[in-house]
Every structure is written in structure tokens, then in C-alpha cells.
Amino acid sequence: MAIKPKGKTENVTCFFWFSSDLGSMPVIVQGIVKEMQSYASENAYAYIKCPSENQTEIKMPPLYVALANEHAKSPNRNVQLLVENREMCLHSIFENKTAFSGNKNNTGSDKHTYNKRIVEFTVCIPPMFKYDNAAQLVEKLEMVRLLGAGRVVLYNNSIAHNVHSVLHFYTQQWAAGNETLEVVVHPWNLPPIHVSYFGQIAAMDDCLYRYGWLSQYMVFDDLDEIMVPLRHDNWSVLIAEREKLYPDHVAFMFRSSVMNKDHSSPAHGFQADAFRYRSSVLAFTQRDNFIYEPNNKGKLIINPRKVETMEVHHVYEGNGPTDIIPVNQGILYHYRWPLLPCHFEVKDSRVASKFGKRLLARLKSVWSRLKSISMGGELPRPGFLRVSSEIFQRKHGEALEGLHNTINAANDIVLAGCGKTYAEAYLSIWNLSDA
């Protein structure tokens, strides 16, 4: 993946080294540069492919690669890059050789190591920028664990000390063999140029190419989003069923709905723990009364062997169509400040009802070992509540009359204050009281 000046055409040459002697003569091929989305930035995302000139059936992957533009006769020795996950290619080559020779009995250690690294679901998270919400991070990791993730890949542009401590905890637990969820963190130090969303699309495709062959499926969403199967126990059962119906599809889209965080609405039985662990899943059960259309804010689970490149909300280049998950089977729950602050809401406690007890057990376990770490983020605010759409639509006049000069912070949603800030919410409350 690359970031380049938008619209500028430049020839790129690829150099391959097949031995550890970087002074040896490389194999040289012409690269292919394909520009992708640029949005409003003067720079664009692109990917660079280095096709092999060797068209024989069995190909060995290089040990090192490098690139040079049309102004350079040879690559800078400082940017000769070691090929990562090379064992994936070697495993594929070995399988081809075995099939060709008729040898079916090999149980070599390389194959065993390769198979151990494959997970069913790898979750790819966009770059973290000035990120300090350790409570949200822990909840995200534990929720995707429950949903079936075997690996989570994150990109660190800038994080606070508490978040660093959480990530260190998970990575160390994995290294020690005490953890079933692999958490991988890559530095994401982009050059000082303008690029949209801190290079989010580049990070997505980096994750796709680094871990696609080590994953049966890949999940692309954000730290404040959760793709929740509503009729199935986990992603695995849902995707298996959808693939039987649509075997030619390459991706599965969850439509989005916002769980509004301008007011708390704790799930029944979880009120105290929702605040104790700053849990969005347990603290917020009111969402917008609509679900966004598939082409707006949806997120994807993909089959990485059928996808070339990704965009934030759709497959940019793939080998088939995308399946839209029916909203009675799955929704992308987006826990954030409202996009439409005064819009009607509905009660939706299905996530907490289905996963709440197991999630809470995991949160208790993790935070019991991170007692000195600040959770960060913000506590759910119980004092900023809104009239539910049901009350508002059925008994509008009665609701307003009942709110006159009253601020009710009970668990039932009865307060009509809303706005982009808490001050605006209070102002809205008093305007209603005076109506």
C-alpha cells in the first residue's frame, strides 16, 4: 500500500532478492501502480503490485523486496524490506509440490506452524489517534472474542499510557501462551502530509494483505462499533449460513444504527456494573429508530481470498457481490454521541441480553488484573435522558405536561432534553418545560 500525490503518474520498479546476501544481483520487474480513493485530500491511496516474470507452476517467494521510482537507478539499501509471512507462500508451494508428486503423507513442522497461525476471524481496527479510552478498548476486545475473533490487529498513531498498558497486557499474555486472542499492534507513523482519516484505507488494506492468508474471514469495523448477530450465537454460524445461501458472495455487510451516548439507559440487572466498567454495551440500550441504508455507514466481514482491496464501507475491488445481512439477523451497533441529537429512539437491549453476562465476566477478569490502570473515556451520564419515540408518538401532550418543571433521572426514559452538548440538552429541557 502507498500514499501518493493525487493524479500523478510515476513508474515504479520492483527489486527481489532470493538470498540473504543483499549485495547479490536482484531480480527486477516493472511495478503496477493503481490509484484508489483520494476524497478531498491532495494525496491519494494506491497499491503497488510487483508481478513475477516467472510463469512456472512453482514459484519461490523472495526474502527481500525494494522499490525505486523512475528517478532512481537502484533502490536505497535502507529500504530493502524483509518479506513478512513468507511461510504462507512456502506452505502453498509445498502443497502444490505434494499434490504434483502424489505424496499425501507429509506432516512436516512448517505445515503445523502455518496451520496454528490460521484463525477463523481476524478483526482489523483503523489507526488510533490520541486515543485514551482503555475501557472502550477492553470491551471491544472482549466482545469480538465472544463473537469469534481469533486475532485483532490495531494501528498505533498516538495512544495514551493507559491504552499502551492494556495492549501490553494482551500481547504479553499471548506471548506467554496464556491468551487465546492474539492482539497485534503495528506502529502507524505516516509522513507529515495531508491524508484523510490518518490513512484509514491504507491501514485496512495493509491488514488485508498481512493477515488475509492467515484468516478464513476478516472483520473491518471501528473501536466504537460492534457487528452483532441477533439470531445466531456468533459470526461463524451466521456467515456459514449466509454462504450456503450465496456461495458466490465475497463479503457480508452489517447495516448500521447509532446507540446514542448522550444519555444512559442501562440494561436491566447491569446498572451498577455498566458504570463500574464504563461499558457501552451494558450502559446504552437506546438507539435511533432507523437503520442506515447499506450504502451508508455499513461495515463488512469479507472472504480475504476473494477481495483485492477495501474501502471503509464497501469492497473496492473483489471477485463477487456483497451480501446485505437482514437486520433481523445482524446489526452494526455504533456506540457514539448522536448524529441526530433530537431524533426519535427505540429501546434495543438485545446485545446486553444476549452477551451481557459473559461480557461482564470477562470485564471483571481483565480489570482485576489491571487495577492500577485508568479506564479513561467518560462515565455514562444518567442525568441527560430523552423521551422515547413510543412515549413521544403515543402521548406527546401528556409527556410534555408530565415533564413540566421536572427532571427525572430514573431508568425509564422520560426526559426530553437533547442537543450536541450537555448545555444544549439542558436548554432543550427548559424550553420544553416552558412550552
Based on the model shown, name its key terms.
435 residues, disordered C terminus, alpha/beta, 12 helices, 24% strand
Please indicate the percent range of residues in DSSP E strands (runs of 2 or more).
15-25%
The low-pLDDT segments are: 93-110, 387-416, 428-435
Report the helical percentage: 25-40%
Spatial ordering of strands, largest sheet: 10-9-8-11-16-13-19
Tally of extended strands? Answer: 21
Quaternary structure annotation: single chain
Structural class: alpha/beta
Count of helix runs: 12
Instruction: Using the CA coordinates, give the radius of gyration.
Output: 25 Å
Give a short overview.
The chain is an alpha/beta fold. The chain is built from twelve helices and 21 strands.
What would your notes on this structure say?
It is found in: Membrane. The longest helix is centred in the last third of the chain and has 19 residues, at 350-368. This protein is 30% helix and 24% strand. The protein starts with a strand and ends with a helix. It has helices spanning 86-101, 109-117, 134-147, 161-175, 200-211, 235-245, 271-276, 280-283, 350-368, 389-394, 396-402, 422-433; strands at residues 2-5, 12-17, 27-30, 32-35, 43-49, 64-69, 81-82, 119-128, 151-156, 182-187, 215-220, 225-229, 251-254, 256-260, 286-288, 299-302, 307-310, 315-318, 322-324, 330-336, 345-347. The strands form six sheets. Strands 10-9-8-11-16-13-19 form a seven-stranded mixed sheet, with helices on both faces. It has twelve helices and 21 strands. Helix 3 (134-147) packs across helix 9. It is an alpha/beta fold and 435 residues long.
